[in-house]
Amino acid sequence: MVNTILCPLSGAPENEEVLNKAYSVAKELKSHLEVLHVEPEAKESIPLLGEGMSVAMVEDMIGMAEKEASERVARARKLFDEALKRHDVTVADKPSGEKKMTVSWRHEHGREDEVVARIGRLNDLIVVARPGDSDDVLTPMTLNAAIFESGRPVLVVPPGSAGSMRKRIAISWNGSVQSARAVSSAVRMLEQAEAVMVLTADSFRTSGARGPELAQYLEWHGIKPDTKVFEAPAGSVGPKLLEECEKFGADLLVSGAYTHSRMRQLILGGVTKYVLGHAQIPMLMAH
User: I need a labelling partner for 89 at 20 to 30 A (CA). Which of 22, 23, 142, 230 fits?
Assistant: First the structure.
């Protein structure tokens, strides 16, 4: 069940698209959306300053950091207020007992990645922008914190991904713990989908027989997916997976995140790294 959704906003211009997607999901699932802005402490920038700097220079740097932080808060709040007007949704800080979408604003101080991980643990889903599509350096840190530190599924939104996500859903299935967590968190969306496709790579790591096993499990939830096994030589699983998603016309990809060593994938590459960098549709991921 997805009853609460967290959407961190840094105040970057690209946040508008992510916020709109969070609204769309919350409306479809009749969930509460908590929009979060984390304001960094200006004094945290001091350790990054070079040695030998004068007190005046340090104060100037802190002043600039405080000014930038204030501007980010204002931009994030403006995005929140504008979205609220567009979508005409009820603001609520406590459950009303009614099954409908509500929204709230939350302003915290500290490191964005740490705060997102902490608050994310108390939400059913976290919605973030895809790293690399923004000049906001906090985005990759926030995504990593959401995936590895929150214990919650994460919806990663690439630019230009408008529209519903519950019509045609693809599942990347390899039988891993991470994949199972992703599917479990997506069951409600899968129940509402018009079509579901289970995609399994026939590779040296994964058996094509895993797909029908998942299909049988989903049928107990009233979901009748199609299954497809695709050949993927070493190093080609990511590109082949996205190719199959495009053929199916998927508007959402459900996938485990970093099913192998995180360090290995970050350095040498892997399916998660490739998909995060190239997918044109939202990705629901879990670790």
Answer: 142
Task: Answer yes or no: are the C-beta atoms of 41 and 109 closer than 8 Å.
Answer: yes
Do 18 and 132 fall into the same domain?
yes
Residues 6 or more apart in contact with residue 22 via CB below 8 angstroms: 5, 7, 33, 35, 127, 155
Confidence tier at 180 by pLDDT (50, 70, 90)? very high
Taking residues 139-167, report their average pLDDT.
Answer: 85
- Give the type of residue at 40: P
Q: Residue 8 forms beta bridges with which residues?
A: 36
Predicted confidence (pLDDT) at residue 233 exceeds the cutoff of 70:
yes
Mean pLDDT for the stretch of residues 88-111: 92
Choose the final residue of a domain: 108, 134, 156.
156
Whether 179 and 141 map to the same domain: the answer is no
**In the predicted model, what is the mean pLDDT of residues 250-265?**
77
Answer whether 238's CB lies under 8 Å from 275's CB: yes
Contact 202, 231 (CB under 8 A): yes
pLDDT at residue 59, as a whole number: 73
Going by C-alpha positions, the residue among 251, 280, 284 that lies closest to residue 166 is 251
The rounded distance, in Å, linking the Cα atoms of 242 and 278 is 8
CATH number of the domain to which 39 belongs: 3.40.50.620
Contact 128, 156 (CB under 8 A): yes
Assigned domain for 162 exists? no
Which tokens sit at 131?
A: 């790293």
User: What's the domain count of the chain?
Assistant: 2
* DSSP for residue 47: G
Give the mean pLDDT of the chain.
86
Same domain, 54 and 141: yes
Beta bridge partners of 69: none
Rounded to two decimals, what is the model's pTM?
Answer: 0.89
